[in-house]
Structure formats: structure tokens, C-alpha cells
Amino acid sequence: MGALLSGRANAFGLLRLVLATSVVYAHVYPLGYNSEDPLWGISGHQTDVGKMAVVGFFVLSGFMITSSGRRLGIGRYSWHRALRILPGLWVCVLVTALVVGPLLFMHLHGTTSGYWHHHPDGPFAYIKGMATTAIASGYDISGVMRTGVQRGLLHNAAFDGALWSLKYELLCYVIVGIFAAGGALKRAPRTVLLATLGLYASMWANTWHASTLRGPSNEPAVYLRVPILGQASSHYIIYLTFAFLLGGCFQLFRDKIPVNDVLGVLSALVVLATFRWGMFTVVGYPAFAYLLIWLGLRLPKQVHWVGRKNDYSYGIYIYGFVVEQVLCMYGASHWGAPRYFGVSLALTAAVAFLSWHLVEKQAMRLKDWSPNRPGWTPGRSRRRAEARNGTRDETQGGLPAADPPSNVAVGQGA
């Protein structure tokens, strides 16, 4: 695997774009039709398209972010991670609360009176609660989505519910940062492997005690209060951190893991088999992870340009849900699922384009900023390093109440 990883000569940008698009597709059904996407039934209620996409994001993020943690100092690593996630999120939250929210409130009530000072779930409480991904004030803003659900316009009362997973992404960044600060990524990578196996053992224990091998995970949920990030479900901490660290293990042991076409095809068949016979989380997750890495390295070079300079996947992920909600409020679900999805994706792509070029890309220009370098110019140090090393920074990945709101992104269980 190590021999195939040369700079950005891979298809991971394309895969992230496909995964983000899959999340938009998956949300068409719960928002517009109060149902799950087709994979939920095909897999025997084990997974759906949205859940697989989120797991895929965590695998690819773990693969790329671990490389960043191994290469950079802890301060620079933390700065890069914050720049990649937070500016885009903050602007999304502001747009949602200060633009989309009042427009929909006006659409529903004919006035914005009552929107701005509707406590405790008003727009300013929402902004404060979402700024750290803690979702401290809840998902709705001034009852806009609840009113939409009551009137039968849509079927989910969570404003931009897809943001639920970002706290778990940030938590995984912190875990990798701890490994990096302790030297484990460079000198003791087996520590990461042991942590991954520990999480995997917990998943096996859940499967062992399940009433059926083909169905949703049903272990008791335990809620933990994580500093800054707020309440988090032990279920998602285990399953999503496992996916993230599994991707990290692919990175750390890349010189020992073969990239074999037979194994790639076999991994796809294993995923399909778990849909039919069960054990998707404990057997399908590792197979799906290998399949993604294999595709990222084996897809033809003609698609390697996707996401190399412009990564729209994060914007699609964080804006897709709210775009679909706005369309639902105006009756788009009556168009039928294919047209509703098509229009949603087109509008989301346009917003993601603006988010990348106006916010995310500009924030990433600050990657090499230092308070002790008054003569610094955005991007200059990075270009020098790339010219010297012949590589580009492979860290754009990522995304992406403690639980996701009902019917959001990952269905019922992860």
C-alpha cells in the first residue's frame, strides 16, 4: 500500500464527494416521505445509505488525519484540524439561524415576529449551542421545523440534523492528537492498533448479545458528557471511533497491508453478504474500510483530479440537509423522490461551491500562520514545503441532543 501512496495521486477526493452525495440521497426519504432509504430494507435494518456514507467518511478521515498527526507537531496539527472544520461550520450555522430560519418562519407565519426572541430555542441560542458542535440548545430554531412537521410539510424537526456527527469527528481528532503527542504514531503504532482492537471487541460483544445477527444494533445507550462537545452517545463513540482508527491503522501499517485486486473484489462481496446474512458492523465495517482504501488507490488516474484543488464534500455534507428541508417546506416532496433529490443536490452543490471558495479555502490559507512570523504570506510556506518534498498536504478529509435526530444520516444504529 505504501508504494501506491504518492502525494495526492489517488481517488480519495472522488470517494469523499460520492459519500457526501450519498448522504444527501439518504435524507430524501426521511425528510420527504417519513421512511428510510432502500438499503435499510435490503440490509435487514442493519444499515442504510446514509449510515454507510458516514462510516466511510470516518474511515477516510482516519486514514488521512493520522498521516497529518504523524507528520506535524501537535500545535500545528490542532490548528489544521480546527481550520478545516470550524470556519465552514460556523458560517453554515450563521446562515441557517440568521437567513434560512427567518425566511422559513416568515413562510409559515407571515411575519418574523416571535422568531428572534423565542426562548430557549431561538436563533442566538442555536448559534451558541452549535458553535462547538455540542448542540446545547437542541436542533430546532424558534419552532420552525416543529411547525413544519405539524403541518405535514416535512417529517423531521431537526434543523440541519446532519451536523450531529461533527462532534464525533472532532473527538476522533482529539484522540489522534493524544496519540501524536505521546509519540505513538511514530514510535509505537501498535498502541493505535490495540485501541482499535479494543473497540472492535466491544462491537463483537454487542453482536454476541444481540437477539439477531441481521438487524439494528440494540445495546443500551450510555450518554457521556464530553468537555466542550457536550453529550455524546457511547454507541457512536465506539462505532465511529473504531471506523476512524481503522482508517488510521491502514495509514500506520500501509507498508504491510497489500493492495490486492482480488481482496478488493472480495471485500465488496463480503459487504453484500452481510446485507443478506447479518453481522454488518463486525464483518462489513472492516470489509467496507478495505474496499474504500482499495478504490482510492486503484481507481484510474483520470479521476484523481477530483477534490485535488477544490474539495466540496464537506460543504455538501453540512448544507445538504438544510437545503432539502427548505425545499420540503415549499412542497418539493410532491415532485417525487428522483426530482426532489436532483434539485436538492444541484442547489446543495451550488452552496458547497460558495462555501469552499469563500470560506473553507480561505481558512485553509491560514494553515501556516504563526504569531511569531509578521512577514508571513498565506500559502507561501506550504508551497515551499511542497516544492521541497514533492508532495502536497493530504489533510483535507473530514467531514460529516447526543444522538442524531430520528432518521438522520445513519438511520437507527451505527
What structural class should be given to the helix and strand makeup?
Answer: mainly alpha
Give the total of beta strands.
2
Helix-strand topology string: HHHHHHHHHEEHHHHHH
Low-confidence stretches: 385-395, 409-414
- Based on CA atoms alone, the radius of gyration comes out at 21 Å
In what range is the share of β-strand residues? Answer: under 5%
Q: What level of helicity do the residues show?
A: 55-70%
Shape: globular
Average of the residue pLDDT scores? 88
The termini sit apart by 28 Å
The main sheet comes to: 2 strands, antiparallel
| Largest sheet, spatial ordering of strands | 1-2
Q: How many H/I helices?
A: 15
What is the oligomer described by this structure? single chain
Biased composition (Basic and acidic residues): 384-395
Protein name: Acyltransferase family protein
Transmembrane segments: 50-67, 88-108, 168-185, 192-210, 236-253, 260-277, 283-300, 312-333, 339-359
Organism: Streptacidiphilus alkalitolerans
Question: In terms of topology, how is this protein built?
Answer:
Blueprint: H1 12-33, H2 38-42, H3 49-71, H4 74-109, H5 123-130, H6 144-150, H7 166-181, H8 184-187, H9 190-208, E1 223-226, E2 230-233, H10 234-252, H11 261-277, H12 280-298, H13 313-329, H14 337-364, H15 380-389
Helix pairs in contact: 1-3, 1-12, 1-13, 1-14, 3-7, 3-10, 3-12, 4-5, 4-7, 4-13, 4-14, 7-10, 9-10, 10-12, 11-12, 13-14
